[in-house]
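Deliverable D2.4 — example input (structure tokens):
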């Protein structure tokens, strides 16, 4: 899936560990409020998986975020944690 437009306004990496091992994830938030993730590693082995839509933020919340990249990154970090991953930018 090409993610050229709309623009990516925040990006964080996430990790999760379980019985199957440690997994690394990449998360992005686009200017239209869509949040996507993809698996990027399993037990240190690099993976390249397609982007999956996690959520779409409401317009009112996006208007509050547009003020700065730090706010967008903070919100994306909270979404990552809600999905059970540790956010580490």
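Example output (designed residues):
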């Amino acid at each position: 899936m090409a993610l050229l437009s709309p623009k990516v306004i925040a990006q964080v990496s996430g990790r999760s560990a379980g019985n199957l091992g440690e997994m690394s994830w990449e998360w992005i938030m686009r200017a239209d409020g869509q949040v996507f993730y993809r698996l990027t590693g399993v037990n240190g082995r690099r993976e390249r998986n397609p982007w999956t839509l996690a959520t779409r933020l409401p317009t009112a919340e996006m208007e509050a975020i547009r003020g700065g990249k730090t706010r967008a990154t903070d919100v994306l970090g909270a979404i990552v944690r809600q999905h059970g991953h540790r956010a580490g930018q």
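The CA atoms of residues 20 and 43 lie 9 Å apart.
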